[in-house]
Amino acid sequence: MKNYFYITTPIYYVNDKPHIGHAYTTILADVLARYNRNIGRKTFFLTGLDEHGQKVQQAAEENGIDPKKHCDQMAPRFNELWKKLHISNDDFIRTTEERHQKVVKEFLQIVMDNGDIYEAEYEGLYSVSEERFITEKEAESGEFRDIKKLKEKNYFFKMSKYQQDLIEHIESNPNFIQPEHRKNEILGFLRQPLNDLCISRPKSRLSWGIELPFDSDYVTYVWFDALINYITAVGFKEDKDQFDSWWPVSYHLIGKDILTTHAVYWPTMLLSAGIQLPQSIFAHGWWLMGESKMSKSLGNVINPMDLIDDYGVDPVRYYLMREMVLGHDSSFTMESFIQRYNSDLANDFGNLLSRVSTLIKKNYDARIPEPGDYLESDIQIKMKGESLSSQIEILIADMRLNEAIEEIMQYIRTVNKYMEDNAPWKLVKEDKIAAGRVLYIAGEALRLSAVLLSPVMPHRTSILLDALSARDTDISWGKLIPGDILKDHEPLFPRIK
Ligand code: MSP
Q1: Distance, CA 423 to ligand 1 centroid (Å)?
Q2: How confident is the model at residue 301, as a pLDDT?
Q3: Distance 215 CA to ligand 1 centre (A)
Q4: 264: which residues sit within 8 A by CB, 6+ positions away?
Q5: Domain of 379?
Q6: For 320-372, how does the pLDDT look when each residue is reduced to its tens digit (9 = 90+)?
Q7: What angle do CA 131, 135, 141 make, to 5 degrees?
Q8: What CA–CA distance (Å, rounded) separates 426 from 140?
Q9: Distance (Å) of CA 12 to CA 226, 294, 403, 442
């Protein structure tokens, strides 16, 4: 396997108020990036902002300021959220940046020179809210607002020319579009003739965009501009070595609502420009509020900031990763959040740490005891711990994150059971050496679990590892050092009443 891992989130509309949807995709990307860094792969994690288009222009006009200034004012809200959520992105791209505008123009010129862009007069239905021409059928669906008839000269990308190549690529690369049901959805869509894509907007109607390199009366359609961010950030046309190391991207993580743009527009654009296609486009489902869609109009959008303020970052990250089966919708409820927190984090994980550290402090002068010779039940814990990391690796490569987390939790439950079976709190009175062995094994199992959970809960696991004096984030067994002193720590996961 290539030792480079490149992962992206969608670039979010700069006008949006950050919500749970943005937070979710970005945390998911962060967990995968951290995991890959931990297993020693060179990792590049990109997120950013989509700053052009009509809505931004309108919002800036309403505020009476220049659109770039408007973007500059809005952008920090996202960066602040990422900081708060402990997002470890390597780059934050904004489509108004010079580096990106340059690449978009170069890309357009390449596609033009290949003969894949033509000019045509087009008359059709245009959805102002979606900023694109729509079909009669789409107009009838009732999903589009502000529809008007428009007749304009525009530039078109010959998307249809690549339809067959794309179908073949999807069919011969089973991981290209994930999960499977999304792949089938796109193959179904591609069974119909594909239209060419209108990629320009006349400046007379919209000026806030990247000017076409071959016609200064037009700007680039916002999606054509935005998708290119994924290659700008890794040095397309700027740094060949850098680009060749990272591209093709390992994962474009997206929500299911932006699948067509990523799985049809983007690959055909790349085919035209002669650039390799992404290794995988992964579409996750939606967070619902109970049974209904989260939407501003229903007033049921979860503000991630509020949850974090009340319960801390890591429990929120944990819940989002543990609860959603990747690829399917998931329902957010406060009851399930509190239940997960109390059962997994407070009872199982937090409790194991407090038992181990309390007993070591009380009976061994806070020094990690010697393990001595392992008995059968100790060997069981050690062996399970040793096989856990390879199990996790397989599950994560398969994007079964919730199952990976559950495996670790199961392990923690097994260790709690081991503690109960051996009852070191009683054993210590009769046989201090034997009780020390049990506490070493439990402590080491806890260390391993914390290392494996660190991509999901980087902050609290680092407190835990520090409390155990664990200098090592190695996943092999036996890294706790007898004699090391346990440190005091705040309660990791106090129960929510
Ligand atoms: N700017 C485009 C993406 C361009 S990428 C080249 C865009 N931006 S967005 O701000 O609307 O992105 C929203 C992202 O959040 C999408 O991936 C969408 O699926 C996701 N979510 C929005 N609401 C969501 C939920 N309720 N649940 C999960 N994710 C959802 O689209």
Answers
A1: 50
A2: 67
A3: 31
A4: 159, 166, 186, 189, 190, 194
A5: 334-467
A6: 999 999 999 998 888 899 999 999 999 999 999 999 999 999 999 999 999 99
A7: 90
A8: 73
A9: 10, 17, 28, 44
User: Residue 296 above 80 pLDDT?
Assistant: no
**Ligand 1 atom closest to the CA of 12, numbered from 1:** 10
Q: Cβ atoms within 10 A of the Cβ of 34, count?
A: 18
Q: Is residue 81 part of a domain?
A: no
Which residues on adjacent β-strands are paired with residue 177? 281
* Number of domains the chain is built from: 1
Write down the H helix ranges in 247-350: 259-260, 266-273, 304-311, 313-323, 334-340
CB 7, CB 288: distance < 8 Å: no
360 domain residue, yes or no: yes
**How close is the Cα of 400 to the center of ligand 1, in Å?**
21
Residue 51 lies in a domain: no
Give the integer Cα–Cα distance in Å for 106 and 427.
72
**What's the CA-to-centroid distance between 15 and ligand 1, angstroms?**
12
Tell me the pLDDT tens digit for each residue of 221-232.
999 999 999 999
Instruction: Provide the Cα torsion 209, 211, 212, 217; round to 10°.
Output: 100
**Angstrom distance (rounded) from CA 92 to CA 50:** 11
Residue 456: give its domain's CATH number: 1.10.730.10
Closest CA to 81 of 326, 316, 334: 316
Domain membership flag for residue 130 = no
Q: Given phi > 0 = left and psi -120 to 50 = alpha, else beta, which region is 325?
A: beta
Q: Which of 259, 264, 286 to mutate to test the pocket of ligand 1 (most atoms within 8 A of CB)?
A: 286
Residue nearest ligand 1's atom 25 by CA: 21
Pairing of strands 147-157, 197-198: antiparallel
